Amino acid sequence: MSWNRPIALAGLFLSNAVAAQGALPTVTLHYQERPPYYQTRPDGGVQGLVVDTLQRALARAHLPHRLALTPSQRQLRLIEDAQGLDCGIGWFRNPAREAKGQFSAMLYRDQPLGLLARSNLGWSDNLTMAQALQRPDARLLVKQGFSYGAQFDALLAQRTRTPESSSADVPVLMRMLLADRADWMPVAPEEGQWLLSLPTDSSSAAGSFQLLRFADAPPGGSRHLYCNKAVPAEWLQRLDEALK
What we know:
It is a single chain. The protein is an alpha/beta fold. It has two domains: 18-110 and 222-243, 3-Layer(aba) Sandwich (D-Maltodextrin-Binding Protein, domain 2); 114-213, Periplasmic binding protein-like II (D-Maltodextrin-Binding Protein, domain 2), CATH 3.40.190.10. Helix content is 37%, strand content 23%. It has nine helices and twelve strands. The protein has helices spanning 4-22, 49-61, 72-81, 95-100, 129-134, 150-157, 170-178, 189-197, 233-243; strands at residues 27-31, 39-40, 46-47, 65-69, 86-92, 101-109, 114-118, 141-143, 164-166, 184-187, 209-213, 222-228. The protein has a five-stranded mixed β-sheet. A three-stranded antiparallel β-sheet has the order 10-7-11, with helices on one face. The longest helix is centred in the N-terminal third of the chain and has 19 residues, at 4-22. The termini are far apart.
């Protein structure tokens, strides 16, 4: 009997060691406040069109992780430096980023580009990008340094009238529209719906704008988890399987 207990303990220690070797490390998943894609709930949890899909897959795959609220430029630095195990939630895929990190399978695909426009412009959903940009009396507002897709960006570069621009977040841009600083701005339909639902100082202010879709807009971009190269390949593989 005296030999059985040490043998049993040795087997237990060996089992634990094997399990520890097979365990995956905790990865920090960074998000920014940008409803309706990602936002912090009053209880401290995180929700949104992109985050909800991700969290369901993480639960199915039993992947260790933690969520952190992090500005987008800080996220990029963490991914490019690869000092820790870090991923950014909801990033678009492109060759420059692929060279510096790795991407998960798709978390969410944006709807085709739309626009928020003052109702008295008389525009409808059959409007093309060129028609909107060529109308000289319609004051355009854009987010500074932001890409709205290759097609819209190319047409915007040909526009003779310089648009109003701001580096502020999209809700601030909406307030600029409401303050009569501009007549329209391009926007993702998901974000446009959320913006129109926000309370305003005037009960009729939001009603003076309509959410439209460009008739010639290409499909929206796909959003992914963008991770640094220090994140184990197995961790991402298990996530991709759970996203199927």
